[in-house]
Design goal:
alpha+beta, Aminopeptidase, 2 domains, 13-stranded mixed beta sheet, 11 helices, 26% strand
């Protein structure tokens, strides 16, 4: 199959429209992370030397599929990783492709993936592990969703209502804002998130520069079809929780979320999630994607699970052999009864991939 590789900004308007149409035609490709606008947004934030490339299956004269990646000298990785929560090929239904052809077109020895859609058959044999990503589907409206959660024996919404009454009684009114354009509230959310990362010993992603620029650019976006959307929740006159989310198609993807620790006992983050779901009744959005990560609030709020996988696509090369060796070591360690020690090779691989992405 002919495959052309171009920079995201080199795609014609016709090619971008074709990509968007293919994505819209398949509900399984709904995520804004699979949009051509995501690849372009990442390229803008990382700069012209970032290595962002798009493989156009069928060629630019007859595009049948699109896949973006950040291409280095020997390896490629998802566009915008570690800020990218889904990866996949956007293509015509039934298109047959050997993933190694895509790797060869990029001119590298391997392509690593960390959140590949499990439903994508060409990549399934290359997966080395999987996890669930959690989604809230409110296509039938908030009331129907609330009834479904209650019937499933999940009390999270009832508990959230109770905490809302408590905080209003003890402190003051709760005010929800969608599409907030408050620079002050946006800045406070970023400060909270960085403090949270430091307090938990995690990497401050924004220190790398380009992730902060990416989030700021998406916050400033006025594109009606793609961009960021800031949701805020005030208790009295103080900001208590905020979410900077990604939007596209019929999906809002929960992305950068945090809250004021002073309001912890009232669960302001849960209040904000509930308000977003209620607000979605009067919008084109019907899915709130919480992403991967096995947290209790995700399990209780979600009513749909999407499988995602990690692994790599390798062509015959030293880079592929190195990754294969690393996965073999990881598998052997995880099979041993060593407790947390068994997790060290996997943690080391994830840490290395994180640092590669932030460069």
């Amino acid at each position: 199959m002919k495959i052309d590789v171009v920079r995201p900004w080199e795609l014609s308007d016709t090619a971008v429209a074709r990509w968007s149409a293919l994505q819209a035609a398949d509900p399984g490709l709904e995520s804004p992370f699979l949009s051509p606008h995501w690849a372009r947004s990442v390229a803008r934030a990382q700069g012209p030397d970032s290595g962002l490339r798009v493989a156009v299956l069928g060629g630019l004269d007859n595009p049948r599929g699109f896949m973006a990646a950040r291409v280095g000298a020997f390896t490629a990785m998802p566009p915008g990783a570690p800020m990218c929560d889904y990866q996949g090929l956007v293509a015509e239904p039934g298109l047959t492709v050997d993933p190694r052809q895509i790797v060869e077109a990029f001119g590298v020895g391997r392509l690593d993936f960390c959140h590949m859609l499990e439903s994508q058959a060409p990549f399934a044999p290359l997966a080395r592990g999987r996890e669930d990503s959690f989604v809230i589907d409110v296509a039938c409206g908030y009331a129907a969703y609330e009834a479904e959660r209650r019937a499933a024996g999940i009390s999270v919404l009832k508990d959230t209502d109770r905490k809302r009454r408590k905080v209003e009684r003890e402190i003051g009114p709760v005010t929800f804002t969608a599409w907030s354009r408050s620079d002050a509230d946006f800045g406070k959310l970023i400060a909270w998130k960085r403090a949270q990362w430091r307090a938990t010993g995690q990497t401050d992603l924004f220190a790398a520069g380009w992730p902060a620029a990416l989030v700021r650019n998406l916050f400033a976006s006025r594109d009606p079809d793609f961009g960021g959307i800031l949701f805020t929740l005030h208790i009295g006159d103080r900001l208590a929780a905020a979410q900077m989310n990604l939007r596209g198609g019929h999906t809002i993807h929960s992305w950068i979320i945090s809250h004021d620790p002073r309001f912890e006992r009232y669960s302001p983050g849960m209040l904000l999630f509930q308000d977003i779901l209620r607000w979605m009744d009067d919008t084109p959005y019907s899915r709130l994607d919480l992403g991967a990560g096995d947290y209790r609030f995700k399990r209780e709020f979600s009513n749909v699970k999407v499988g995602v996988t990690h692994g790599f696509i390798g062509a015959p090369s030293a880079a592929a052999l190195m990754r294969e060796t690393a996965y073999a070591l990881r598998k052997a360690a995880e099979a041993l009864p060593l407790g947390r020690m068994s997790e060290l090779p996997g943690k080391a691989m994830r840490r290395l991939d994180l640092m590669r992405g932030l460069r």
